């Protein structure tokens, strides 16, 4: 990873440790906050997108068009699905991103976007509907590096499919419905493990530009009947950034 790496997060809170090593770019042509610098020996461009798919897609497009990064790392917090085996504070790494809302709703329930017959993206002979595979070399390297992190033995670090939604899940029933819907959507053989609001949009744009993408999320909560008292955003934010920083430092060796 000798070239420029782009980092994308939704909020400054999710980026606080990363931003300590970077400086803000003063460029009026940039519609969003953009920072540059080094983490270890890796050259970094970091953009803060705002939450949601539209903001994430805008940020990814802006940063790719302006800086032509060699790879994109999307990071932040996420909610783990009940059957994922993840706990609050653990690390999830995506092997693919899934649009959780795009599709059709019939009397018998939800059907994925392929039933519409028009792909969200066509790249050569490849058609993308709900799912966007992420770069296998990057996510395998990330797992290998992060399992050697200090205190890694206290964390579960797991690869699986991520689901990006527009409506955050706040009930156990809905969480289990999404798990079941995307149960065969992970290269690791399990179901969807993590929910977020941006990743599929970033993966979509990266597929358009044929840029490798890695996504790392710290688990802030289990997706169930909503109870903020059980959440730990601070630990999720800290652990996720520690994982991103460790990955960038170790990838240069």
Helical proportion? Answer: 25-40%
Mean residue pLDDT: 94
**Spatial order of strands in the largest sheet:** 5-13-12-6-14
Oligomeric form: single chain
Sequence stretches where pLDDT stays below 50 over 5 or more residues? none
Radius of gyration: 17 Å
CATH topology: Rossmann fold
Straight-line distance between termini: 9 Å
Based on secondary structure, the structural category is alpha/beta
Shape: globular
Please give the CATH architecture. Answer: 3-Layer(aba) Sandwich
Number of domains: 1
**Fraction of residues in β-strands:** 25-35%
What's the total count of β strands? Answer: 14
In short:
With 253 residues, the chain is of the alpha/beta class. Helix content is 28%, strand content 32%. The strands form 3 sheets. A 5-stranded mixed barrel has the order 5-13-12-6-14, surrounded by 4 helices.
